[in-house]
Fold these 3 entries.
Entry 1:
Amino acid sequence: QVQLVESGGGLAQLGGSLRLSCSASGFIPSHYRLGWFRQAPGKEREGVASISYPSGRAYYEDSAKGRFTMSGNRAKTTGYLQMTKLKTEDSGVYYCASSYGDSWGDPEYVDYWGKGVLVTVSS
């Protein structure tokens, strides 16, 4: 029903920046969350940040506060994650995700997933 297409990712230096984009299409609900999870090798998938539509308010996991910025577009179909001051522990596969209503914070709440993009922060 909802398709999520990610772009961005790649290799970044320690302390550097990277921008991820997620474009949603299809049968998009009026009220939903659009954001990002990440998963490092051998670790569980964890939330990073999200934006709530139609309000446009951004929410952040503690690990992202002060370093990452979540934003959207006028059509309320895009989720941008601007990552700065990157750390090695930020490395992993980043997945765009969408959830109906205002539910968020756990992968079990996610209704749709993107395919994921790899982010590698080198030291």
Entry 2:
Amino acid sequence: QVQLVESGGGLVQPGGSLRLSCEASGSIRSIFTMGWYRQAPGKERELVATITYSTNTNYADSVKGRFTISRVNAKNTVYLHMNSLNPEDTGVYYCNADIRSGYGIRNYWGQGTQVTVSS
């Protein structure tokens, strides 16, 4: 009953920017930590950034200073602003969240959105 839906991916040239969004919907009571992960072809899924309910953030070293994670709790939405993109940022970006519903606290994944950085 709870879903995470990502949007905002696409094709961008090196040095460009993209803004990803992820909105949670369903029978939600509370959303705790939210985050973004990415997976390139042939590679393991890796952490990009996380943000707690109180907006404490953590970033992978590879994106620190270039990416910014934020959230709007009233909209059940987390964002990822990506700047100075390079081809190594290419991959499917997945939204993740710990969410409390009427049935307890569970971890959820979105379906992912493709980000391609290429000239």
Entry 3:
Amino acid sequence: QVQLVESGGELVQAGGSLRLSCEASGHTFSSYAMGWYRQSPGKEREFVAAISMGGSNTYYADSVKGRFTISRDNSKNTMILQMNNLKPTDTAVYYCAASGRLLGFLGGDLDYWGQGTQVTVSS
């Protein structure tokens, strides 16, 4: 049983930066690949980024490559999404997710979800 809580979403101007955090409960954080999805009005939830259990491998959607950076600190049960050069198209609810395997993020089959945090980028 894992609970995920996101934080850090807020209103920001285009070109600005935000840092989203996801804190996981329990002591098995390192047993899960972690990642982020986002969903904007009228669209399906889309993959943003993922990171392997040990943090050695990272994957990004083409739309965020070069702008977003995913990281994790297993000692703190925390995953971070650093978002730079934000665009209005980045506006969405961002969800933290966990999977027992990294491939779960490619197929959209995740084990746990957070409640989401709203990111709004104004033009």
